[in-house]
Write a structure and sequence with these properties.
alpha/beta; D-Maltodextrin-Binding Protein, domain 2; Alpha-Beta Plaits; 3 domains; 7-stranded mixed sheet; 31% helix; globular
Length: 325
């Protein structure tokens, strides 16, 4: 079987990524000592990279699969296959301005600066996303047509519209207004840091989370496709397990029907006879949010209730890598 090269992210979602890998592959070694990680599967080579780099490196075939944020896939405009939302690393992309600015949305911000013939300065790590989002706004089209905002970095300037300038930020973006720029295009989890810097959000651009992506050519390789399908199954098993709870309980024969009617089982509950006549053992997996709803009934009709959180739930019949070709 072909070796699969796997890129995982360093930085804010690094620890959450390692927790997922440990749940999926049981053994992960090298974390904290090297950029090259070993899983219990010798056919997978793992390397830690910045999440900003991973979409492009996967697109170009340096790596077969990778974990990064949706926001960075969009920023790179990467031509990759999206295999799975891993449902962690949730952030919102937003535009924020000083709280005293008399504007409440992006159109008002653009209009305010355009009519006063002032250059609108924006700081962001997401240069292409910021540019395309601003260009799509009706007020921008009204005042500047289809010209591109000027993007400014230490090494290049592109874009013809000097009335709207996007400056590359190397971090601490929320600290730059109002002295250095007028607005920021940034990510936030709760909005707390933005408010602490006396800013207000005027536009919610997109929601992002960690996702598993793959190189499209790698998915056409039979050997790599099978290994990637295995990886997808294991990681999806972890994602699904976070949402479920495994319950075990002892139930009297006269209560079996009412218990079974209330259980939203993953498939079908497992029922077995206990050594004592008239008693049964019931085992099933249900959504965590469903458990609270049926707890009152279980308290009255069941005994010896035991809960456990599954490590993985592998619904192998739902894994079809061909859907991503």
């Amino acid at each position: 079987m072909s070796v699969v090269k796997f890129a995982i992210p360093k930085g804010s979602i690094e620890e959450a990524t390692f927790r997922v890998l440990e749940q999926a592959w049981q053994t992960v070694s090298g974390h904290g000592r090297t950029y090259r990680i070993k899983l219990s599967d010798p056919d997978i080579e793992v390397k830690i990279l910045r999440p900003q780099e991973i979409p492009t490196y996967v697109q170009e075939g340096f790596y077969d699969v990778g974990i990064t944020g949706k926001d960075w896939v969009r920023e790179a405009n990467a031509n990759v296959s999206h295999l799975l939302d891993l449902e962690y690393g949730h952030v919102n992309q937003v535009i924020a301005v000083p709280e005293y600015f008399p504007v409440n949305n992006l159109s008002e911000l653009i209009t305010e600066f355009a009519e006063k013939k002032k250059t609108l300065r924006i700081s962001s790590e997401y240069l292409t996303t910021t540019s395309s989002h601003i260009k799509s706004d009706g007020a921008y089209v009204k005042y500047f047509g289809d010209s591109d905002p000027q993007i400014i970095t230490p090494w290049l300037r592109v874009g013809t519209n000097k009335n709207v300038q996007i400056f590359l930020s190397f971090g601490a973006t929320e600290a730059k207004p109002p002295e250095d720029v007028d607005a920021i295009f940034d990510i936030t989890e709760t909005g707390t840091t933005i408010m602490q810097n006396n800013l207000k959000i005027i536009d919610n651009v997109m929601q992002s989370s960690a996702i598993l992506i793959a190189n499209k050519t790698s998915l056409m390789n039979i050997g790599k496709r099978e290994k990637i399908a295995d990886m997808l199954a294991l990681l999806k098993g972890v994602v699904e397990a976070r949402k479920k709870v495994h319950i075990f309980m002892n139930v009297k024969e006269e209560n079996i029907s009412s218990i079974l009617e209330s259980l939203p089982a993953l498939k079908k509950p497992t029922i077995s006879n206990l050594s004592e006549s008239g008693w049964y053992s019931v085992s099933t997996i249900i959504d965590k949010n469903e458990f609270i709803k049926i707890l009152p009934l279980l308290r009255k009709r069941a005994q010896g209730l035991v809960l456990s959180e599954p490590r993985q739930i592998l619904q192998l019949d739902e894994i079809n890598i061909e859907n991503h070709l």
